[in-house]
Amino acid sequence: MEEMCVKRRGLLFLGLCSSASLVLPLSALAAVEMDEAVKSATLVDDTNAYSFTYPMELPSKKFTFKWVESRKPERYSSAAPLSPDARQRIVSERVDMINNLVISVSIGPPNSNFLTSTDKNTWNAKDVADSVLSDKSALRITTAQRMAESSVLDAHSTKIDGEPYWYYEYLVRKSPTKAVETNSFRHFVATTAERDGFLYSLTASTLSTKWDFMGPLLQNTVASFRLLPPTDSYVPPYKDPWRFW
Length: 245
Prior knowledge:
Blueprint: E1 4-6, E2 38-45, E3 50-58, E4 63-64, E5 68-71, E6 80-81, E7 89-96, E8 101-108, H1 125-134, H2 143-148, E9 150-160, E10 163-172, E11 186-195, E12 198-207, H3 211-223, E13 226-227
Antiparallel strand pairs: 1-2, 2-3, 3-4, 3-13, 5-7, 6-7, 7-8, 8-12, 9-10, 10-11, 11-12
């Protein structure tokens, strides 16, 4: 893991350091300035050809994240499905159970109910968000029921190196923890990019009660997500769909 330090002032960007490629979700524009350096680490997944950074430590607050790699990066064919139809699958995930944080990367084909065109340059950010969220429920429910679980707060897109990235922020009414109040939501930020006919999505989340503190850090993790030029280690999602190792 490579550590990097991001200085105070302005919007934090914990990833590629080129100012020309700095892109944050709209909600991040209102994020409070961080008066301290943030130590972070970078994950590079050669199998699926993407990277992102995530916070490790806030030195001035003597705060250290307790990340555990719950799912090591793996090829799409062997990854854990997010729904019964197994269209969208988690290819990597890390969690901080102490602070109720989850960062995951999932891959899946576009949902034609929302993305009817094959030209990704015409896709609307809200439609991309709906496409991803509609395939995420682990329950055997209808698409409408899956959509009812989530409320999209913001969605927009931008191009980075000529490729569109779609950013969105949403709440999920069902909290994965039992110890919190019934009116507590799960607060998510995510970004999606397309390659080889599949959507690659990085999602970061925490409880709504922790959002004021954790939210800006998770937004910067999402902003750092990039699809990388494939190497010899890259395995496209459509390759050997029957293979489970």
